[in-house]
Amino acid sequence: MKSISIKTHSQFCMINITSQIQNIVYESGIADGIVRVFVPHTTAAVTINEGADPAVVKDIIKELDKIVLLRDNYLHMEGNSAAHIKSTLVGASEMVMIENGSLVLGTWQAIFFCEFDGPRQRKIFIKVIEG
Amino acid sequence: MKSISIKTHSQFCMINITSQIQNIVYESGIADGIVRVFVPHTTAAVTINEGADPAVVKDIIKELDKIVLLRDNYLHMEGNSAAHIKSTLVGASEMVMIENGSLVLGTWQAIFFCEFDGPRQRKIFIKVIEG
Amino acid sequence: MKSISIKTHSQFCMINITSQIQNIVYESGIADGIVRVFVPHTTAAVTINEGADPAVVKDIIKELDKIVLLRDNYLHMEGNSAAHIKSTLVGASEMVMIENGSLVLGTWQAIFFCEFDGPRQRKIFIKVIEG
To answer: Does domain B2-130 have CATH number 2.60.120.460?
Structure first.
């Protein structure tokens, strides 16, 4: 298992981690298999979406913030319940197939770490599995 | 890794791909393991839900369209930001366990390709892993 | 493949199943690998979120119930379309990495079975994979 450390700089952001994950796959020496990405936080998530136009992630962040209200008489006293709910909706893990040592992603796909309660120091766990 | 090609015929639809995935599992000859389904698109997704009553997928499609507004002053100029957001909410991959060569699904479960920005030609990647 | 049986006692609830999954990992004797959790129901789900403050799951349940309307002229006659939609948004499966026989979870993370149409008798399938 490998780990990536990330420092987020705003309350909500999505950070493209595709090249870091591709590097870990290269270093593993595994040509065919699956890479698993796991976020060990309850107010963050990981998703796959468009990496070409940065407007897409801005739209995702803004609309998620409309869907899950930031303040809504939540019981959790830390004030970050919206971030917990987004974390459950987007999810803590992703998997991508590997062929010939490369991530099998569509033309527009990139892997994003999603920060919903930053800025914070965050970690991402990665495991490359042969097969 | 195997691939399925799908032609979608409307803007929003959910297509039951369970039997196609079951066939790929049969052809793999793998009796026990896991099958992984991955959608290499950023305006589509894959989910598991009820395959018996076609009203269920109609309700899912209609309600998702209420939750994620189709037009909302999005920055992404292609006009399909809602599809990108639904893709992140529903997710690009699923996994199903395999026992005795068969998908281990609940009585009502089926695997659906979700089109959020059709009609389009789409692909689905499938990997069967022993274990 | 192992199975857990759960009896839910209300319409909406989230039940912490972390220790049951950790026990299945111990019993498997597998020190390094991945555990896969799968819910074979279309009106339930599995998620990873905060296990420390019980207010967090209450907030998640309440806000999901706002995001997906319980009654909305749904076509599905059983009256549980909202539960089906939540199931697709939260997802039917999770995976957690294993190191030295233990689940690799963040400080605040726990694995929850999500009931969206209870009370019911439910099952959860678990598969521990070495690697």
So the answer is: yes
